[in-house]
Amino acid sequence: MPIDPYILLLLGTVGLAALFPARGPAADVASGASTAAVALLFFLYGARLSTREALDGLRHWRLHITVLACTFLVFPLLGLAARGLVPVILTHPLYQGLLFLTLVPSTVQSSIAFTSMARGNVPAAICAGSFSSLVGIVATPLLAASLLGGSGGGFSADSLLKIVLQLLVPFLAGQLLRRWIGGFVTRHKRVLALVDRGSILLVVYTAFSVGVVQGIWRQVSPARLGGLVVVEAVVLAVMLLLTWYGGKALRFGRADRIAIQFAGSKKSLAAGLPMASVLFGAQAALAVLPLMLFHQMQLIVCAVIAKRRAREAAAEVSAAQPAAATRTAVGTGTRSG
Q1: pLDDT digits 0-9 by tens, 144-153
Q2: Does the model's pTM come out above 0.85?
């Protein structure tokens, strides 16, 4: 089973925050740096996203609407249904984190990677992930305001202003400046990817430091964590089945169904973590825990599925080749006769 090395770094950051949480003036410095890191992340998101590619992808609008519906409609409905598990299986803070998980956009990189591995429609996966990220900049905060309300870290006019200033304004600035800095961003993709990941680690350290200082980890027992993992496994299984067989019911081809399954069943850790730090404030540590667990779970399960889809595609090609050879031989024999 694949273990994402970045998850190990995230867990190490959580451990560092548990042993050496930022306190006093250090906490203020970490909070300011985290705020700047979130703004930088969304600036880079805007600078990377090609508006032209996104517009070109509109030609496959049925697929993109299907993925968006899975991401921002079906997922949240499952999150709302999980409300009935409180307080027997989930605590209220863990449920808030689970509900927030269902509101974040889909991934881009892993959706593309698994779609390619499974021999699916890679261009469709690229566009679907890009659309989801773009829509999520606005949809995720609005859905959080509607579904989480005041319990989601005190969502208010002040929270809305923070979202606009820390997420939307940097993203739009990146889009506007893409014409001049797009080449630089592309050429230094690997270095900027390290900046992305380092920024997220800083956000995680700051959020979990606050949690440790406030003693919120006493709210989470091993039994509660086990219950959360089971609930997330059920949510992921439902979405994987729904995206695959729903795509078939909607009469998409196999390659498109693969793109729908991988883009429509995932949630983005990279987008969700900084959003949670803005939306939840001091409660961000428990809010991001379900997302971190789900991220690793979706990587493991989707890797297995992608390999299976690839074997199925290879088997179909192998089965088709003898049949094609037979038809060719029969045609040649008929002409000779």
Answers
A1: 888 886 544 4
A2: no
